[in-house]
Predict the 3D structure of the following.
Amino acid sequence: MKTALITGISGQGGSYLADALLNEGYRVIGTARSASESSYSNLSRLGHRQKVDIRSLNLTDGQAVLDLIDTLRPNEVYHLAAPSSVARSFIEPANTISDITSTTVNVLEAIRKSDRNIRCFVASSTEVYGNCLEPANAFTRHNPRSPYGIGKSCAHHQAVVYREAYGLYVCTGVLSNFESQLRPRNYVTAKIINSACDIALGHSYEIELGNTGIVRDWGAAQDLMNAARLSLKQPTARDYLIATGVSHSLNDFLKMSFSRVGLNYQDHLISKETLVRPLDIKQTLCDISETETTLGWKPKKSLGDVITSMLYFELARNVGTTKASEMLELEYTSSKSNVLNIDFQNK
């Protein structure tokens, strides 16, 4: 039985990655700053909480990271843990950059010192590219426009240095925005989904947002984590751009979300200047052809599929699965089995 260690396992990405690895027969170990205090609701929703071994670990403590990896000697390490809010990185820039870079180098140093045969995946972000005038690939020049992007760019280059200097098998995955029913409510996409459901149920009437003209490549968390898993099965380590290759504006996201519950988002949207970031990326465009060819992988779910599953989950939490199906347009719920994979009785 192979062993995989996942940092940041409680997040949506870590939980879906754990799901894929468990289904493949791995022993999965996750880390958390305090294993006893976290609820791991995402793992519970996927039915895996009791199948994962959770260890307490402060990733900013290099010696603690070394001790754990040296003791476990996992076959694979997936380093996903990091501050993940671009907006918050403008409020706490020093902490954001420090946390991303220090935790990454601690993981890489631990592998270098304990067992160089361990394969490692380091999660990067399309935020490292800044504005894309044309589709980016894994080798596109970095031009970050936020403290979060700066931190991720540094972590990305740390991984490359350790691969080239020490011969470690380290892959970076430049991940685009990914969504799922497990997305925390403080993110704009979850805010849109929750607002659409609340308005449709008569619980509210308005949604306040900043710049809705931004363009992003939104994918399904399951799809992108599957690519991360496949990256460590290749003969040689390299960098991958993991996305869908299809970009949409936030207005598109709003339109798809609200129309699925019979609403026009323009009747409910209030634009607020105070919600606009100090500096933002206008558009993210991705060329995933090399990733598809190298990994033999393609994203299975469209943005529409992801939005449908998020809406269905949120409605089902409030009014039950039968009513949720009735509220969504038939054309979107007819293929429910293809886009939903959460047992709503276990929420």
